Amino acid sequence: MGTRVPGVVIVGASAAGLAAADGLREGGYEGPITVLDEELISSYDRPMLSKSLLGSKEDAEPTPLRTMEQLQERRIDVQTGHGATGLDIDRRFVITNYGEALPFRDVVVASGARARPMLTTSGTLIPTLRTVADLGAIRSLAASGRPVTVIGSGFIGLEVAAALRSRGIDVTLLGSGSRPLHGVLGDAVSDWLLDAHRTNGVDLTSRSPAVAVRATDTGYDIELADSTHRTAELLIAGIGAIPGADWLVGSGVELGGGVLTDPAGRTNVPRVWAAGDVANTLDAHTGLHRRTEHWTHATNQGRHVGLNIARGRAEPFTAVPYLWTEQYGLKIHVLGERRSGDEDVVVEGDLESGDFVLVHGADDELHSVTISGRLRALATYRKLLRQGASMTEATSAVTPA
Ligand SMILES: Cc1cc2nc3c(=O)[nH]c(=O)nc-3n(C[C@H](O)[C@H](O)[C@H](O)COP(=O)(O)OP(=O)(O)OC[C@H]3O[C@@H](n4cnc5c(N)ncnc54)[C@H](O)[C@@H]3O)c2cc1C
């Protein structure tokens, strides 16, 4: 398979890995690019899984990230079903599940993350949603039309709950805090989101985390931290993700909450880079490592690393953080990162209409912006965040009509 001339081997053919390949070509790299992915079907739009694809009764497939023509034109060799099982940094090989030793000049680790597993007391895995195969399993559950309990009220839990409701399924959401996504969105937007779920019929009455799940004859018995119990017919867990870095344990690449990199995406091993959900990257501004699990970040960081490799540079990655989520047809965008204790100020529109801009910050420092509806506002506030604008500037900004 693939090339035997040392080129760039990218592990993971998703947002970060494919963007790294594009960045390499864009930056003028002409050598071989091999992208390995352990999934048989890879390179698809993962965010669709918990939105349109789960929300519809049609069995549509996710959209591929690249066409065969695009890959051929850019001479990107994607090898699906080929997992990296190890990295030999002395002889510079990536080892695969087929026992192949692929020589590399540079490696980009873009192996993303996998769903944090949750087991019943008898050791059975509770379904989670990360891959197209997971979607198939959850669709089969949903096809029964029976009520579903979702454990976890983070992005995935909330989106899964909303998608199942749109199929008319009764949903109970067991979160662990009083307000969903409070840390990211702040009081006002979090309450607004909570209302959207309640209005759409999600049972959100419990606010205590699940501590044990027992399989019963009719489904499950869930023990909560406050010692109460809930029963469920069907269960889905959305309790976070863990970096897909196990294959690098012992390789010499420094790990710690993911693959540790400098702001440019370089690991401690020369010519070994990382990007996307797996990368725990040093933030040039704060001096802290951060692992980000969002699509646009993975794409932008992947491309950035590809460009750095192609150009022989080590430019720091400094894009303004961005994420979006979609629930009940509402698309919420977040730029920057809200900090605990930030004040939340509505600067455009209002929450009732679902059309708004809120800025979050403290001590006249702007930290993040939440936008719903007003797409034009994204450019305005991205620019302000990039410029390090103050809350005063942000509250007086007006998006051109
Ligand atoms: C259901 C769902 C909905 C989401 N919705 C949103 C959203 O609305 N907005 C948003 O900003 N983000 C969203 N995200 C997060 C977003 O999908 C991720 O941040 C993004 O996919 C990360 O891209 P990545 O390329 O770093 O990793 P991944 O997409 O995780 O891809 C990693 C790839 O590496 C492969 N791989 C792993 N280990 C190996 C190995 N050892 N060898 C070879 N291949 C390997 C995997 O098979 C996978 O294809 C969502 C995630 C999920 C699961």
Give a description of the structure.
It is globular, with a radius of gyration of 22 Å. Strand 22 and strand 23 form a beta hairpin. The protein has three domains: 7-114 and 241-311, 3-Layer(bba) Sandwich (FAD/NAD(P)-binding domain), CATH 3.50.50; 117-237, FAD/NAD(P)-binding domain, CATH 3.50.50.60; 329-395, FAD/NAD-linked reductase, C-terminal dimerisation domain (Enolase-like, domain 1, 2-Layer Sandwich). Strands 1, 2, 3, 4, 5, 6 and 16 form a seven-stranded mixed beta sheet that branches. Strands 19-20-23-22-21 form a five-stranded antiparallel beta sheet, sandwiched between helices. A three-stranded parallel beta sheet has the order 9-8-13, covered by helices on one side. Helix content is 24%, strand content 29%. The termini are far apart. The chain has helices at residues 15-26, 52-55, 68-73, 132-143, 155-166, 182-199, 295-311, 377-386, 391-395; strands at residues 7-11, 33-37, 76-80, 84-88, 93-96, 101-109, 113-115, 148-151, 171-174, 210-215, 220-224, 229-232, 234-237, 241-243, 259-261, 272-274, 279-282, 289-291, 322-327, 330-336, 343-350, 355-362, 365-372. Helix 1 (15-26) runs parallel beside helix 7. With 401 residues, it is an alpha/beta fold. The mean pLDDT is 95. Flavin-adenine dinucleotide binds next to helix 1, strand 2, helix 7 and strand 19.
Which labels suit this protein?
401 residues; alpha/beta; FAD/NAD(P)-binding domain; Enolase-like, domain 1; globular; binds flavin-adenine dinucleotide
Helix run count? 9
The coarse overall form would be globular
Any ligands, ions or cofactors bound here, and which?
Answer: flavin-adenine dinucleotide
Question: Could you say what the CATH architecture of the largest domain is?
Answer: 3-Layer(bba) Sandwich
Unreliable residue runs: none
What is the residue-mean pLDDT, rounded to a whole number? 95
CATH class of the largest domain: Alpha Beta
The gyration radius over C-alpha positions equals 22 Å
**What is the CATH superfamily classification of the largest domain?**
FAD/NAD(P)-binding domain
* Named CATH topology of the largest domain: FAD/NAD(P)-binding domain
How many domain regions?
Answer: 3
Strand content: 25-35%
How many β-strand runs?
A: 23
